Amino acid sequence: MRPSFDEMQATPTTVRPHYKTYDQWLARQPRDDMQARREEAEMIFRRVGITFAVYGDKDSGEGTERLIPFDLIPRVIPSHEWREMEKGLRQRVTALNRFIHDIYHGQEILKAGIVPREQIQNNAQFRPEMMGVDVPQDVYSHIAGIDIVRAAQPDGSGTYYVLEDNLRVPSGVSYMLENRKMMMRLFPELFAQHRVAPVAHYPDLLLETLRSVAPRQVADPTVVVLTPGMYNSAYFEHAFLAQQMGVELVEGQDLFVKDRTVFMRTTQGPKRVDVIYRRLDDDFLDPQVFRSDSTLGCAGLVDAYKAGNVTLSNAIGTGIADDKSIYPYVPKMVEFYLGEKPILHNVPTHLCREKDDLAYVLAHLDELVVKEVHGAGGYGMLVGPAATKAEIEDFRAHLVANPSNYIAQPTLSLSTCPTFVDSGIAPRHIDLRPFVLSGTEVQMVPGGLTRVALKEGSLVVNSSQGGGTKDTWVLED
C-alpha cells in the first residue's frame, strides 16, 4: 500500500504553504497548555450534552452514550482546492437527484442500459410506492453528506475521491458547527491570524432550503424536525438543528393526518405542517404503508405526501441512490444526465455479484476493503490488510453465500493529519463529509465534518467505531 498523503507536511522537514502560519503557532504551544484546552473542550461538550450512542456488538443491542472525541488540531484546506471540490459536489448531487427522479418516472437510464434494471428492481431501497409521484422542484435529496477521502499518488500529490454518498438521513453536521464554536472559544488568536471561511450560517441555509421546497400553494410554510426520540444515537443533533432553525422538534405521536393534510398537536390546537425534515428511515414513517409495527411515524403520512400537501426531506426512496451497489454507476450518471465529465472521481469498485469481480475479490481478500451494500457506520465490512486469517476466512464464507450483498475496493491509505493524542502529536487518518443542500439552488458551507481514526494505523473513522472529529478550515483568499 502506498504511503499516506500528509495534509500538513510536504516532506518531513517542510510544511505545505496553507499550514505554515498554523505550524509556526503550534510550535510555540506548551504541551501542558494544549492538554488543558483539550480537557476544557471535553468538559464543555459534556455539559452541553454532545453525545453519541456507541454500539458494541451490533447484534447485542448493547451500547453506551459517550462524547465524540474532539481533536484540537484543525484540518486546513486551501481555497483553490475547496472551489474545485465544491464544483464537483454540486455536479454530483445534481446528477444523483436527476437519477432518483428518473428511477421513479421514465427510467431512461435503465432503458439506455447504463444501470442494470435488476439493480433497481431487486434493491431493498427501491420504493415502488414512489413511482410516478412528483416532488417539489424534482429534488429528492435536500440534504446530502458526501464522504470524501484523499489518497497519495505516485508523484507525491494527493487526489480526492468520493467514498460514499449519504442521501437518506446524513448525520454529523451538528458536530461540524460545535467544533468550530469550540475552536473559536479555545483559540481566538488563530482566527485573527487566518481567514477561515465561516460555517455558522448552515442552519439558516438549511431552513431556507427546506422552506424553498414546501408545497406550492403555501406562502409561509411551517417546518418541523421529526425525530425517532431521545434514545436515538443522533438525538442531540435533531434537537440542536431544530433549536438553531427555530422550528419545532416533533415525534410521530405529535403528528396526525386529517383530509390528507399533516397537523401537529400544540397547546393552541392543531397546526398545519408543510415540511418535515425527517430523521428516521422510510420503513418507520407510516405504519399504513411500510412497517405496520412502527410507532415512530405517523399513520396517513404517505397519503398526504402523495397528495402534495406536505414535503418530506429527504424524500421517500432516496436510498436507491446511496446504495453501495449503485455507487459505481454515479460517474456514468453525471455524463448521462448532465453531459459532463465527472469532476470528483469514485474509488475503483468491484461488484461481487459479477462473476469475474467475485473471483478477483476472493483471490485478493487480504488486500481489499469489502463492504455490505447496505452497511453503515463501519459495520459489515472487512479491511483485508488489517484482518486476521480467521477473520478473512469467516468473511469469505459470507461473501460466497451472498455475493450480491457486497462490493470491494482497493485499500486506500487515507490521508493523515497531525492529531493531538496521548503520546503527543501524531498523524492519524481522516476523511471529510461536506453537507450539500439542494432546494431552489444547490448550496453548502465551506468545508464539512472531518472525521479522524484515533487508533494508530486505523482506517475506520466512523464515530460508532471510536473515531473522533476535527474542525475543518477552508482558507479564504
From TrEMBL:
This is Circularly permuted type 2 ATP-grasp protein. InterPro entries: ATP-dep_Glu-Cys_Ligase-2, CP_ATPgrasp_2, UCP005522. It comes from Ideonella aquatica. Residues 74-453 form the Circularly permuted ATP-grasp type domain. Pfam families: CP_ATPgrasp_2. SUPFAM superfamilies: Glutathione synthetase ATP-binding domain-like (SSF56059). Coiled coil: none annotated. The lineage of its organism: Bacteria, Pseudomonadati, Pseudomonadota, Betaproteobacteria, Burkholderiales.
